[in-house]
Amino acid sequence: MPRAARLDAPGALHHVMVRGIERSRLFRDDRDRADFIARVAQVVERTGLTVLAWALLPNHLHLLVRTPAAQRGRPYRPVLPTAMRQLLTGYVGDFNRRHKRVGHLVQNRYRSTLVDEASYLLELVRYIHLNPLRAGVVRDLAALARYPWSGHSAILGRVGRSWQATADVLGCFGAVRRTAGRQYRAFVAAGVAQGRRPEFQGGGLRRSAGGWEEVAALQRGREGWAADERILGSGAFVERVLREAERPVAAWPRQRAVAALPLLLEWCAERWG
What we know:
There is one protein chain. This protein has 11 helices and 5 strands; from the N terminus they run E-H-E-E-H-E-H-H-H-H-H-H-H-E-H-H. The chain has 273 residues and is an alpha+beta fold. Strand 2 (50-56) and strand 3 form a beta hairpin.
């Protein structure tokens, strides 16, 4: 059965999740974690992705990223598949060499969900940054603030991550950094009591999960909801994304056919494996 195609668009927000195969560890030590984060920084520089939130757990990881805006007069080429391929291929190869192992490390493909940013940006920032606490990697919020392997400590100014868009998140809480930091900290603390969020786990809503009650509790009024496991948002948002995804791609000029071949092969690999 063919895999669902990746959904992408200029300036789109994606919740990305990667799991270790058979729940094995993606990260065995801090050297692994530091190597992965160095690769994230490189990918950000090469592709223009914006990283808004992230967390490394022993056997999985979360990234909340925004793709670059479209450049006027140039066709948009999906950035996320290229970025994730560079990130994971390089990391897995070095991980295997460091730990003298062979074979797969990542379970299937990474999962990515296109997210309605207006409704879910801050909810996902909080959800992702609370993951180490929920998983028992850290004991409390004070330890979470010091934990170097998530974006939370960078937003609080405890760890420097020049590639992380901390100002984009803090800007949602106010124009003055100190005040915004306090508001952000309080916002994250208020999420501890929420526990696990089924609608966010695994990358988004699953049609088979029967999780509509969870959606109704998100205080979105009487908004309609549509189902697609690659998208998290209101019914109108889901339908709009699917309409855009179904638009035919304009034919490229004949002289660009040879240059287009690598992109075509990449697209086929992403769709059918």
